[in-house]
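2 proteins. here.
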Amino acid sequence: MSLTSPNPAAPNPAAHDADQPRERWFVHRLKVYAADVHGRFRRLKWLALIVLLGIYYITPWIRWDRGPGIPDQAVLVDMVGRRAYFFWIEIWPQEVYYLTGLLIIGTFGIFFATTLLGRIWCGYACPQTVWTDLFMWVERKLEGPRTERIRLDKAPLSARKLGLKASKHAIWLAISLVTGGAWIFYFNDAPTLLREIATGEVSWKVLAFTGLFTATTYFFAGWAREQICIYVCPWRSFQAAMVDEDTYVVTYQDWRGEGRAPLRKSQSWEERTADGLGDCIDCKLCVHVCPTGTDIRKGQQISCIGCGLCVDACNDVMAQVGRPGDLILFDTRSNQVAKADGLAAPVRLLRPRTVIYALIILVVTGVMAISLAMRPTLDVSVLRDRAPLYVQLSSGAVQNAYTIKILNKTHEARTYRLSVEGLANADLSVASAEAQSGPSLTLTAEADSVATYRVFVRVPQGDAKPGSTDVAVLARDLTSGEIGRHASVFMAP
């Protein structure tokens, strides 16, 4: 068998591909040099930053008296004591469903805000936005305005450049360290932990988690920045699906701004209008001030976080050239369509989705509030021994053994009367003190704790029903009269 030689005149695909530029599947990040801007939305962002960071850093130091032996930190997640404290509310591990309720309220709260005002959470309240704003402020103060920062990055390494970069990163690390440390204070008593840090007695676990939170803050706010908002954060996709034609979002009025062209000194606005040009003078300042580098003139994009800084920048330019402001503004799509036709669209805040989101928030909040107001201070759990299922004593009586836990949620020791409902002539005794026996038992539980008892229940032979009998174990608080109940069974031959 012979091989056919290829035609030498035929084009070589490999050579042809080598001559063509390869398609790039990945693009290097284009660093965003956000310019400084002044205006009402910038002031609003500073206000949000100060308030939110103030709450974050101050909250662990707020005290709340709960009585002796109970942590007095207003907001504390006590992992050792297995409690979560939020001012007057104390959450036990078995009440984790309250956390579920908070997550539902928070989620639908963001849904509701997004349906009304677009990505306002991303632009003003998201931790990534807040700390990135603070990091960028430090960067501007040390390295100068946008153009100077660009020149500095392009310049060769020098003592000045090295000093500025080192100072910036040192301050970023300090902010990140304070941030990570503040988060650890939510899981430990703040004054005690601060004293341990000062004396070097802090545990390695605290140091490890502080280092972890410091590193993530430094990386996310200092290096990743807008890439977290554009590529990593899942909210960008969720929120984009919740915006409709009546949602207020950052909008470029293309019907007024197009066609865009630089403004010549000798050109009047009447001449621009006659030439078919609009109010946009293509200064690109709206792009330069955007923390994600978004050009809002291209329409709604997933990278826009709805902060409104481009509105401030454009309004400043419009004032300088003598044109009306709000070429870029917060507006709805339906209103923009109406404005282009010279009409006015009504504001529709009450829409099916806003009503549904609001109702869900109100219902879940109401259920949680009622549950917190009416939740018992006593809980009883019962675990019956299964090996053996029962014991028949020499007297003929049938005995079952139970492990009973009495949960005392009050901040004082309580005494309880334990009894069994559903058994005739039942006799109860405690394994550790069988001298105490009878139709009921008197048991105690320390403040804010779980008392565990092993209890034997005996029934005379003639009163024991064959097989399984449904019973209820009752614990009555002798101080308040509150009753805890738990269903179980009694087994007999």
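next one coming up
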Amino acid sequence: MKKITDDMKKLCCLTLFATSVLASHAETLEIAGKQWDYTVVKSEQPAQGVSYMRLRIPDYPLNVNLLTVDLSDPGCRVETWCAKESSRGIEAITSAAKRLTSESLTPVAAANGNFWHCYGQNEYPVYNLIPRVLSIRNGVLVTELSTGREKWLKGPGRNGAVGITPDGHVYVDYFTPTITLKMPGTEQGQMNINTCNKGVSAKYSTTGELGMYNAYYGRDNKFMYVEIDDNKKLVIDEDAADATEVLLDLDEGQTWMAGRDITFTVKSVRTKAPAGTLGDHDLALVARGGKKPGRLAQLKVGYKVHLNYSFKVTGADISPEIEQAICGNALVMRDGILTEHNTNEEYNSMVYSRTGYGCSADNRRLFIIVIDKSVDPVYGKSAGCSTSAMCEIARHFGCSSMANFDAGGSAEMMYGGKIVNTTTEATPRDVANGLMVFSTGVSGIDGVCAGKDAHAYDMWYTLDGLVYDGNPHRPGLYIRRRGADVTKVLIGK
């Protein structure tokens, strides 16, 4: 058991309403070896564990929005938001916030995320050459971290991914993906899955491709069969009827989560038929090309299979369970040191608006930073900056590792229900996904329930602000955070 810091104690005593203070003097931070004066023009705590600052660096000049979230605090929660709860399409961040508001979760802040698709661009139907990379929402894999035909340059060896565990740790690093289907009772035994909610090609690889589909693809959308044309581009193959399709349902008591085996029961097996749909089922497996369709066809109705999608965090050398995740184009700071990706790609070295996600060295605090390249009507011109300058600003406030995300007109921070930065376009763009910070309203808990055994994926707190590393063993009254639900729990003898 460990005691929270004095600053956290003070923060826990605050109401969930924002309080704003103006800085009385300028401070300095270092960018590219030079000291720059900055002023905190706004500092607020919109929820327990959440801090928002607006910074002004007048001589640079830069306008910076910085959000810090203590993931060990039960008063807040961070989730991936996906446009319209889909693996495709776009949505305004403010619209997503309204849609995700509930009795237990109140959105307080959010930002844009992945390099997917935004207003003004065509949605590539097969996502060819667009890095729709890792996205996990509430444990469900929305899109995979591309390892095959859709790599962003070096793929996982370059992409900066952000993953949040069920017990409130955040990792920002290179993630090495492994997606496997374990098939007890079959000759094959195990197969690797190549794509999630994307097209499946019969000719991309001599071994064939195996794709998975879930509700984020859409229950009535036909599975996407694709081929490679003479220009090495993917096109939808509407007439193909060469796949094996298997429909499955989650077993009772099973839940989606990265980093663990998830058990399903086979409900239907189809071979060499036109593309089908997910329907009311939880998972579809589609194999095309090579030997994979025949291997998948070894499954029979009633068979149990185990799906596992895991991501090894390179620096920590672990494959934790991951509940929320998004991915950017590059890891630009690692353990306080700027990486080569700040300078080996023009997109990162150029002067631009910026969005970045980072974490503290102890992996308990999430940092979200948005820097403008625009003229704000109140705070004046913001020149924009490189990713290295973004990293140095974030590092000054305690960030240790950082990934770069979509910038330009997509660089947006929502705070208090509106976009608070001045974007490069007159109207904030609709974008594809990001992370959203919620207030759980933990301080208003009145109900008490009885509990005996602590759930393996819960966060536990005493009433006076002590955080448990594990589960409470002594009888007493505790606060338990289980996903979005926060409850007082009475544990008896």
